[in-house]
Amino acid sequence: MNGASPLTPAGRQDGLAVEVRDLSFRYPDGTPALDQVSLQVARGERLALVGPNGAGKSTLLLHLNGLLQGRGLVRICGLTVEKRNLRAVRQKVGLVFQNPEDQLFCPTRRAEVSFGPRNLGLAEDEVGARVRRSMGLVGLAGCEDRLTHRLSWGEKKRAALAAVLALGAEILVVDEPAAFLDGRGRRELIALLKDLGGTQIIATHDLALVEALCERVLVLSRGRIVAERTPRELCRDAALLEAHGLA
Predict the structure, then answer these.
(1) Higher pLDDT residue, 48 or 99?
(2) CA–CA distance from 202 to each of 4, 57, 125, 211 (Å)?
(3) Residue 187 buriedness (CB in 10 A; 0-12 / 13-18 / 19+)
(4) Distance between CA 20 and CA 111 in Å, rounded?
(5) Cα–Cα distance measured from residue 113 to residue 197, given in angstroms and rounded to the nearest whole number
(6) For residues 137 and 162, is the Cβ–Cβ distance under 8 A?
(7) Cα separation, 120 vs 115, whole angstroms
């Protein structure tokens, strides 16, 4: 399921949001992370990436906005991910890290969510409008000036998502969105991602979340795509789940 033939979303006529072709990557210490990965994601599609720890999921996500660059092709909304296009690519891809504390660095929610739009050079009235809209979308309206370090884990997840939404990204890329959330927080996050719509790529171990949100699943193992399934097909394939640490 990798090599020169990209995995293509079936029945989509509205164009590609993401194209990855023959992508390979090794970390500086020589550790292999991705091995000739190829995939396509249609505009408006929700795709899940699943696999055991160390499979390459997070490494793949970091290639989508150029934080890492390996050998092979990565194209976002028609733009090749390379030095000259990085600014434009990073406005199209909003990456939400697994640990929100790796992403949040400003003292208040307002400062955090306004940081990105302000650095895009937007006028202050537009920055304010984006802050209000994104905070409203994630259910944090009216709490913009609360101190970040006093937020619950679920609130930090929402604040990190709001900061990404404020950039106006076309593609939302989320790494382990339900990690460390309690049952209520997890349900709320699933509902939020469903309501947001748009193009989403979600790396997760949570198969129930995959069933609730995604149309298609790619299984990564040892840096390679080893299977493509619908969520229902994946959950019924006990041998595949067991073989790749998902059961």
Answers:
(1) 48
(2) 23, 9, 32, 12
(3) middle
(4) 34
(5) 20
(6) yes
(7) 9
Best CA proximity match to 69, nearest among 58, 79, 83? 83
CATH number for the domain whose boundaries are 16-243: 3.40.50.300
- Name the β-bridge partners of 220: 225
pLDDT in tens, 49-73: 999 888 999 999 999 999 999 999 9
Residue 218: its pLDDT value, please?
97
Residues 6+ apart with CB under 8 A from 146: 108, 109
- Mean pLDDT throughout 228-233? 95
Instruction: Give me the residues paired with residue 75 across strands.
Output: 19, 80
How far is Cα 103 from Cα 118, in angstroms, rounded to an integer?
A: 17
Round to whole Å and give the CA distance between 12 and 172. Answer: 19
pLDDT band per the 50, 70, 90 thresholds, residue 11: very low
- The Cα 96–Cα 152 span in angstroms is 17
Name the residue among 25, 34, 37, 67 with its Cα closest to residue 173.
Answer: 67
**Which tokens sit at 65?**
């906005």
Which residues is 49 bridged to in the sheet?
A: 203, 218
- Supply the pLDDT for residue 9: 57
SS3 state of residue 139:
coil
Cα 161 from Cα 167, distance rounded (Å):
10
Backbone angles phi, psi at 163, to 5 degrees: -60, -35
pTM: 0.85
Q: Which residues contact 8 (CB under 8 A, 6 or more apart)?
A: 40
State how far the Cα of 189 lies from the Cα of 214, in Å rounded to an integer: 14
Domain boundaries, the chain: 16-243
